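Review form for a predicted model. The reviewer records the input and the model, then writes brief findings.
Reviewer: anonymous (R2)
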Amino acid sequence: MSTPLRILVTGAGRGIGRSISQKLLEQGHRVALCARTQSDLELLTANYPDSSLAITADVLAPGISESVIANVTGQWGGVDVIILNAGDAVSVPLEKTNDETWDHMLDLNLTAPFKFMRAAIPAMRAQGSGNIIVVASKAGLIGEPNVAAYTAAKHGVVGLVRAAATELGKYGITVNAVCPDFVDTPMIARSLELAAERTGKNVEEMRSALESKLPGQRLLTPDEVADAVILFVGNKETNGVTQLLEGGH
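Model under review:
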């Protein structure tokens, strides 16, 4: 492998973020893992004490984006890649989506990535290179029922990626998004539980109904999404790409 890259992953403790972080550490990169639960991070960093940095933080906390980026650049002298993966979804009909849910979905899935992106630009511009990768969603490209706030936020973050790519390319900074279909993570498990409560069906029925509508009739795995994300790491040629990821047979 060439020189290890200095990489920040948000939402690194579980699901897709955990898979991304594990694969990058195995490849020999230096990885700063940011998540709310310290114990989740410690499970990852224990085997890579010299190449990992655990940052326990809530991406919604005031000033946290600047603080986390400063921590990474202070430890490693810069940051080459940021992978903005932290996010969540709430399944609720549009007419029952209250202001709190709407605001939270936009804050977590759109505003937080914007703030981390903004905080990383000065360091990347100074070094003349950088990759910014956002884990968005297929919901950022099409409409989905019962997730209006999440869908709006993901559409917004895809637009942010496209705008940032056109603005930052002249500094050697690429900005890309991966938009996976439904992924087998704790987030989808919670959504299925809520859907089961709403419809009176059990979770397995809801899961089977969802899978029957998907390519390959299955959920994507976190590892599959991680592999798609990592294709952009260190890639200076692609910029502004919004990659739709669907499962096959």
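Findings: The chain is about 45% helix and 15% strand.
Further findings: The chain has two domains: 6-181+222-237, 184-219.
Recommendation: see findings above.
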